[in-house]
Structures are given as C-alpha cells and as structure tokens.
Amino acid sequence: MTAVTALSIDMSLPAQPALARAFDVPESTAQLTLSLFLVGFAAAQLVTGYLSDVLGRRRVMLGGLVMFTLAGLACASAPSIELLLVCRVLQGIGAAAAPVVARAMVRDTQPGAEAARLLSTMLAALAIAPMVAPVIGGALLGALGWRAIFAMLALCGVVLFAIAATTLVETLPPDKRSARRFVHSFHRFFTTPGTRLPVLVSCASFAGQFAYISDSPFVLIEGYGVSAAHYGFYFGATALALMVGSLGGGRMLRAGRSPRAMLALGASLLLAGGVLVVIGTRADLGVAGFLGPMLVYFLGIGLASPSATALAMEPVPEIAGAASAAIGSLQMIAGAISGYETTRLGGSSPRLFSVVVVVMGSLAFVLAMLAARRRPAPQASRAL
Q: Which domains does the chain have, with CATH numbers?
C-alpha cells in the first residue's frame, strides 16, 4: 500500500520528455504532472489522517484507493495538458490514504523501536517500486504510448483495493477513535516536544530525493544521453541503494541500535552524497560522477527516514493518523517545491541539481545532529 506514491511517480518518469513533446509545452510544465500530484497528495494527507483517527483506518484506505483508480482512468484519457494536470491532482488526493493509514497502523500496534524497525522494512519494500516502475513505464511508453502508463496505474489501484478489502483488518477499535477537532490534532502534534526536528530531517532529505526523481529524466536522458528505455535501470540503482539502507537499518535496530543513532548515521551519508555529487558533476566525471554519489545519498535516506518518522510519531500515539499525515504532507510539499524549481531552473544541467542535493543533505545533517543530541522524553510522559 505504501508503494502507491512511488508507482504513481516513478512509472511516469520516462514519459516526462514525451509529455513535453506531445503537448508542445516546456519541460517544467511536463514536470508539473509530478509536482501537482504531490500537491494533491500532501493536502489530502491532512484530511485522511484526521479521518482515520475518527472513522477508523480500513474504510479510509478503501475510499482512497477507489478515487486513485478512477483518477488514473481519467489521466489516461486526458485530451490536454491542463486536464491531465487536474486529473493528476485528483490522483494524488486518492493516493494519500494508503501510506498515511499504513504508517498509522504500524503506530497503532507497535512501540517506538519496533515501529522504526517495521518502517524500515516497509521502506525496503517500497524501494522495489522505483526499481521496476520506470522500466515498466519505459516499456509501456515505447509500445503503447504515455496513456498506457496511467491506464496501468488504474489497474494497480484495482489490485490494491482487492488486496486491502480482503486482507486488511481494522487496527483502531471504536473505543480508541478520537473526535478531536481537526486543527487541534495538528496543533497537538507540532507543539509536542520531540516531534519537530525529526520531521524537518525528513523534509530536507525528501527534498533532495525528489529533486533527483523530478530532474533525473532530463539530466540522464538529455544531459548524459541515456536512452529512455535504459533510464529505468539507472533509476532502479538508486532504489536498490534505498532498499539496502532500509534493510541494513532494520538489522541494526534489531541488534540494539537506537533510532537516534540511525538518524545520525543516515544523515552523515546524506551530507557525504551531497558533497560527492558536487565534486563529480564539476569534475565532469560523466554518469558515474552523478549516479555514484546519489547511491550514497539514497543509502542515507534508507537509514535515516524510518527512524525520523518513528521518532516524530512516538510522543503522540493517540493521534497517530494526524501525525502520519502531518509528516507525509510536509515531506510532499518540500519535494514538490524542490522538484519543480530544480527542473525549472536547471533542466538537464547536473551542476545546478548538485547544488540542491548538497544544500538539502547539509540541512538534514545539522537537524539530525540536533535531534540525536536531544534526550528522549520520559516513558511516562510518552504514554499521556
């Protein structure tokens, strides 16, 4: 269920240059099919997270998957770029329920350290989608055109709905559902000590990640001359690094490493990847100088992101849905802005892209060091 977002974004990546040509629009306009998806996704998370705290997890998940499927069909038949963009916003709104509810289900059933381990496993599973989705998207683009990609996403929505309807059980019983006011839930999350720094780490790391997701088709295909058919394999390499980091982080958490230690280790790799991509692109080392450092950066995301999420949600178990929504929404907003601006200003230039990544990696490192040094709240206060 958490792969809905990755599928929706990554499957359409090889089609970005083709969309610009098909609708005769600039590259930055074609990229809006990614950023506006994230805008709808980010805004809807706030509502779906709150609703899952009030109505329960399962029904919110199912309703979101229905909307995701219908919007995918609308995208596949859109006659203009304007209508395609509107449908992508609607698709993002429908997609929001799946990852928000999935994270909340983990927090419903697991304590902090175990939640971090399970979130690492989920992120590792999520990394499978970026490995295969661009390859599938490239094959569909070459054989049937860009509309087939969105038709495939609709089919994925049907399959996920069937799985959710037949296998998922409700993890939030009626007696634990909260009817807190919408604004109060998010105010409670952001004013609780220990939540803000991990959220900011997640936002900074995801801004660098989505700058790569958005701009890599133009940098690799148009800047370095990689074919659209082979692009998915390059993109899949970074997804593999994300999976390795997630699985490795999960093993270290099971071995007794704390989420704060994992946050610091992952952020160190984010900084290292940012510095290396600046060096590699300015030294004109070709694709290796661009892709190698990004593997380091994505390895850092796999280590840091699950622990950042678990640390942010740990102090507020009673509003896990709202907390999950707030984290996801802010991540998507940061990613949408970063992705659009990186593509708009830099296009196929790897050098400008490298500036974005090193700034986000440095910011994540500083914030993670501050979060790692902060003492955890006493166990009694966490249960309030």
A: 4-168+188-373 (1.20.1250.20)
